[in-house]
Amino acid sequence: MDTGVKPEYDKIIRYSMTLNYNPIICAIDTTDIDAASVLIEQLRGSIGAIKLGLEFFTANGANGVRLLEHHQIPVFLDLKFHDIPNTVAKAIKATAGINTFMMTVHTSGGRAMMQAAIDASMEVATLTGKARPLVIGVTVLTSLDQADLHMIGIKENLNDEVARLADLAQSCRLDGVVCSPYEITNLRKHCGQDFTLVVPGIRPEGSAQDDQKRTLTPAEAMKKGATYLVIGRPLTQTQNPRDTAQTILNSLK
Ligand code: C5P
User: What is the pLDDT tens value at each position of the chain, 253 positions in all?
Assistant: First the structure.
């Protein structure tokens, strides 16, 4: 059936629908599977997905991810792959066993690596019989500033470097990039409406800034054009995660 939507974006839209258009992704930044399980149960129905990163994966591996499968919540595997194309492709192919809807690679891994990542994500779809997992690029880590870029030999202005890497990611068929709330407007302009923007650095009104320097509220980030909001401590360090998530969700309506 011709839906009038480009095939790749059709898949993104279908995935958004499986998330029931709830753009909140809770960053489960713990090594403790039991703590992760309790939190996921508390947040059930109030968030669209969870993010598991290096901390969780290094401690628990693929089996740890499988142990959370019974919660039936979409998993964003944020391992920021960065290696030669063959190794990244094989790592992505190996995610077929752990059912993830989205994952990350470093755009500085270059064109061949990103293309190999997308090809591998298609192989995952063939192996699992499910929709292709989204492959999202990391441009410049938000922990780096202009001086840090200089030190690693990048002379470009930081914002231009982010836009340049996002353009490269898009030309390699990546589905989107991770970006700070303050990069959304520029990247929407560069990469269009169909590019997925995964946005951390989100702080609901009145919550602690923690170590995040440049934040926006969930509603502000969505209004600027975020696709998914990655929210950690405001959800995980609160007395009542479910109420907090519901309040955030209501603020988006
Ligand atoms: O607790 P908080 O909401 O600050 O957590 C944000 C999550 O997003 C963490 O898992 C953090 O590692 C991740 N992240 C980020 N900034 C980036 C990329 C990822 O805060 N640029």
Answer: 333 334 454 455 545 545 567 999 999 999 999 999 999 999 999 999 999 999 999 999 999 999 999 999 999 999 999 999 999 999 999 999 998 999 999 999 999 999 999 999 999 999 999 999 999 999 999 888 899 999 999 999 999 999 999 999 999 999 999 999 999 999 999 999 999 999 999 999 989 998 888 899 999 999 999 999 999 999 999 999 999 999 999 999 8
Cite the active site residues.
Answer: 80
Considering its fold, how many domains does the chain have in total?
A: 1
- The reply to whether ligand 1 has any atom less than 6 angstroms from the CB of 102 is no
Q: How far apart are CA 21 and CA 9, in angstroms?
A: 15
CA distance linking residue 206 with residue 208, whole number of Å: 7
Atom of ligand 1 nearest to the CA of 210: 4
The answer to whether residue 13 is domain-embedded is: no
CA of 240 to the centre of ligand 1 (A): 20
Residue 88 lies in a domain: yes
The CATH number that applies at residue 186 is 3.20.20.70
| 112, part of any domain | yes
Whether the pTM exceeds 0.90: the reply is yes
Give the residue among 218, 212, 235 at the shortest CA–CA distance from 36. Answer: 235
